[in-house]
């Protein structure tokens, strides 16, 4: 037995569902597009952080081939090239980013950073000269300090280093650079203070530890500073102090420090052992 009302209801329901299905397809497509954008953004971030630098370069180059002119992808490529130790190529990409209609003052600062990394100091100085003075950021002043250092404009360098260190919660790197600047000027006591300060922010920074030992040794303070260090680091630092002592003519002290370095290292310390043997054989280091 047929039920016309039921058939009509089913037909009506089918039409209704068809109408809803059309609307649902459009919503799904929009949702998928939004998800894809989010996924792409997350992947970009991953490539810029934990991804292998060369893989990141390939990724962003491929993405730009599909969608050329996208400034966010260009930035990703430039940053990846820096991470991959290709600063000259990075500078070329940053030039395009800085000239882009969506380019920013930060992009110019990053261009200057890449130019410094590729030893284009004059270009870096000119690039920073185009950055508005109101753009007061850590990276801007960090680079200004490095350029002033390269020109031996110590007063300006100190001013920029001080400003930069106050614009970040992680100033260990810039304090280490500032300390090394003082070291090259033979302001050993000033350098020592800055390296110690850098280590208060990053106790694991071996470069600052090694620089600190050099600054102290230059003042003929050959004992190791009271800082955090592993056994291997202690041996390396003793070796640094030893070489500094020998170069200053304190041969006996240097020899003793070399022996301590050999004895301290958890494995065979070839460099220290070779230097010690050379001293014993009266061979000039």
TrEMBL record:
Pfam families: TPR_19 (PF14559), TPR_6 (PF13174). InterPro entries: TPR-like_helical_dom_sf (IPR011990), TPR_rpt (IPR019734). SUPFAM superfamilies: TPR-like (SSF48452). This is Tetratricopeptide repeat protein.
């Amino acid at each position: 037995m047929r039920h016309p009302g039921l058939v009509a209801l089913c037909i009506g329901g089918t039409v209704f569902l068809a109408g809803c299905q059309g609307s649902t397809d459009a919503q799904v497509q929009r949702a998928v597009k939004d998800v894809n954008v989010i996924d792409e953004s997350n992947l970009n971030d991953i490539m810029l952080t934990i991804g292998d630098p060369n893989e990141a370069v390939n990724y962003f180059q491929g993405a730009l081939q599909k969608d050329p002119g996208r400034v966010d992808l260009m930035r990703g490529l430039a940053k990846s090239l820096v991470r991959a130790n290709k600063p000259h190529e990075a500078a070329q990409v940053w030039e395009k980013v800085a000239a882009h209609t969506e380019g920013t003052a930060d992009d110019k600062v990053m261009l200057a950073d890449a130019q410094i990394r590729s030893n284009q100091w004059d270009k870096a100085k000119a690039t920073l000269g185009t950055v508005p003075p109101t753009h007061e950021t850590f990276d801007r002043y960090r680079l200004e300090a490095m350029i002033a250092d390269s020109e031996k404009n110590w007063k300006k360098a100190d001013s920029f280093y001080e400003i930069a260190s106050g614009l970040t919660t992680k100033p260990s790197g810039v304090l280490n650079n500032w300390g090394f600047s003082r070291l090259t000027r033979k302001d050993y006591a000033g350098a020592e203070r800055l390296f110690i300060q850098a280590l208060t922010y990053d106790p694991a920074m071996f470069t600052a530890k090694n620089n600190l030992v050099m600054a102290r040794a230059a003042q003929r303070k050959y004992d190791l500073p009271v800082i955090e260090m592993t056994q291997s680091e202690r041996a390396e630092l003793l070796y640094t102090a030893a070489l500094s002592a020998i170069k200053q003519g304190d041969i006996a002290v240097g020899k003793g420090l070399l022996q301590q370095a050999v004895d301290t290292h958890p494995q065979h310390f070839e460099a220290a052992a070779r230097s010690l043997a050379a001293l014993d054989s009266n061979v000039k280091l």
